[in-house]
Write a structure and sequence with these properties.
Layout (H helix, E strand, L loop, with lengths): L26 E4 L10 H4 L7 E5 L2 H5 L5 H20 L4 E4 L12 H12 L3 E5 L4 H14 L3 E4 L8 H9 L6 H12 L42 H13 L16 H14 L1 H4 L19 H5 L5 H13 L5 H25 L2 H4 L21 H13 L4 H15 L3 H11 L5 H12 L16 H7 L20 H12 L1 H5 L5 H7 L4 H12 L12
Helix pairs in contact: 3-8, 4-5, 7-13, 9-12, 12-13, 13-18, 15-16, 16-18, 16-20, 17-18, 20-23
Length: 541
């Protein structure tokens, strides 16, 4: 890994003129849209006199899944700012724009890469580990076809390499994030006392971090950092509106960090004003409160504008200086050092099988209201509409409202995963797919979770105010006023009764189901059927 050059610095070299007649490129360094690190390792080893940088905007990446306009704009704006910074630092940059005429007939990243390799004929293509299995295979195939040697570089952005995770996993009978997280805390000496024990005497303060908001509401929450689009970003927003007019979502609220300097400011704002309130209410939901106390740093992290090491260090320093409670700090660090690193390891360990996993044999189509927010379920409507407005929802909304519906209603995991990948600005497949297919939908049969995250409307009622104004009653299992989540929950238990009864973690849930009479179960099923989408091509009986 190259030297750390401080806040916002880029590795910089003097750019000597090429020798007369010199046209061949030694190393062509392909920087993908989620690899915008200020200390990219390939640049640390490169020579601007011989090596060049390539960034590719490909419309196929926006249509591979029907991407939210804000997601497209974030990637493009961040890439264009990064290309600008690289040039200012002295690098020769080939930046293929989205609508570049020379590549108009080639929408895919692989196709545009192939054309560039044929033009430049580099001696070698160097790429940092991709964030999607599909892209990695496409790049490998393209380099092979074009006869250009390919060198993959380790991504130092992550604190656990893919190889180290595989070694850790090989020693475990079960993959559980908690054990991995403790190992990472020790490995990187995070929130440990002088004797190497966890600060506060325990590894996990999760029990302290599950409170709903007070009955009167969350009160005043300091806003997250918001960045007015500069001229370059405004040009990108106009391009996205013109090029992808029918894609979902709005750009009216776009204010995401698109440079390293902005990302550092977003981190500072969170640490100074929001970390102190994050932990206790991190699972809470409230109508028209899209961000809560959450950091909104995942997009900057996943684009490599921030390094997780500096995020973790800033949070730990705030606690040690008395500016945040330990439970809140630990809960935040667990998401970055624990869950984020764990999920990436699982993704690369289990691909490509994870992308096709469907343990519960769910075959329903994704309901159309996921793209519009037009539903009378208050919790789902609020999560969907804020997602369409901002390209963002926090983790409990994603898991216990949006993902929960997909799980209980039997929606095909690939359809739900594609929607999550399309709709959120921070979505890169390595983080999205395991979280959605593996955690929310139990599609891999509990590979790293001990049970399905199944719950009735009672959970949403406890953690939010959505049920107060909803036409459905979370206490009713059947009938026209029954909460769809409650009806679907009980029907989910019935559909998977044998498997759930065999697990100690879910056996009690099934015993509660057995208290229902045959007539009650029939009424629940008839109510649930109204909310279970059918597979493509299937018509009602």
């Amino acid at each position: 890994m190259g030297p750390h050059l401080g806040r916002g610095a880029l590795l910089q070299r003097a750019l000597p003129p090429r020798r007369a007649g010199q046209s061949a490129v030694r190393d062509l360094i392909l920087i993908l849209g989620d690899q915008l690190a200020h200390d990219h390792p390939a640049l640390a080893e490169a020579d601007p006199a011989q090596d060049e940088v390539l960034l590719i905007e490909a419309p196929g990446e926006a249509t591979h899944v029907w991407s939210h306009k804000a997601r497209i704009a974030l990637f493009l704006a961040a890439m264009r700012h990064h290309a600008q910074a690289l040039r200012a630092a002295g690098w020769q940059v080939h930046h293929i724009a989205l609508d570049e005429p020379a590549h108009a007939s080639t929408p895919t990243l692989a196709g545009r890469l192939a054309a560039t390799l044929r033009t430049l004929r580099p001696a070698r293509l160097r790429v940092m580990e991709a964030g999607a299995w599909r892209l990695a295979r496409d790049i490998e195939a393209t380099a092979l076809t074009e006869g250009v040697p390919l060198t993959w570089m380790h991504d130092p952005h992550f604190l656990c390499s893919r190889a180290d995770f595989a070694k850790w996993a090989a020693r475990k009978r079960e993959l559980r994030m908690e054990w991995f997280y403790r190992w990472m805390r020790q490995r990187h000496h995070v929130l440990l006392d002088a004797s190497g024990e966890p600060e506060g005497g325990q590894w996990n303060f999760d029990e302290d971090n599950r409170a709903p908001y007070p009955k009167q509401g969350p009160g005043l929450i300091p806003p997250p950092a918001h960045f007015a689009p500069d001229a370059l970003t405004q040009d990108v927003i106009a391009l996205v509106e013109a090029r992808f007019p029918n894609h979902p979502g709005s750009l009216a609220h776009f204010g995401w960090p698109v440079t390293r300097a902005q990302a550092l400011q977003a981190l500072d704002t969170f640490i100074q004003t929001r970390l102190s309130g994050f932990g206790r209410h991190q699972d809470a939901m409230w109508e028209a409160t899209p961000f809560g106390w959450h950091s909104l740093l995942s997009a900057a992290l996943n684009l490599h504008l921030l390094h997780p090491r500096e995020v973790i260090a800033a949070a730990e320093a705030a606690w040690r200086q008395g500016r945040a409670e330990l439970a809140s700090t630990e809960g935040f660090i667990r998401q970055v050092l624990g869950w984020r690193e764990f999920i990436r390891g699982v993704y690369w360990l289990d691909m490509p099988d994870l992308a096709e996993a469907n343990h519960l044999r769910a075959e329903g189509d994704l309901p159309a209201f996921f793209w519009t927010g037009d539903t009378d379920m208050a919790c789902l409507r609020d999560a969907l509409r804020q997602t369409l407005d901002h390209g963002y929802a926090h983790h409990i909304q994603r898991l216990m409202v949006l993902g929960l519906y997909g799980l209980l209603a039997g929606v095909r995991p690939q359809a739900v995963s594609d929607w999550f990948l399309a709709i959120y600005v921070d979505a890169v497949e390595w983080v999205e797919l395991p979280n959605v297919a593996g955690m929310a939908l139990y599609a891999n049969g509990g590979r790293f979770t001990s049970k399905p995250y199944a719950a009735s409307g009672a959970y949403i009622q406890r953690m939010s105010n959505h049920c107060r104004g909803c036409r459905y009653d979370p206490k009713q299992r059947s009938g026209p006023d029954a909460c769809p989540y409650t009806a679907l929950y009980w029907d989910f238990l019935a559909r998977h009764e044998a498997e759930l009864a065999a697990s100690p973690r879910t056996a009690l849930m099934v015993r509660n189901l057995q208290r229902l009479s045959a007539d009650e179960k029939r009424a629940v099923h008839e109510t649930a059927l109204q909310w279970m989408p059918r597979p493509t091509g299937e018509t009602p009986a």
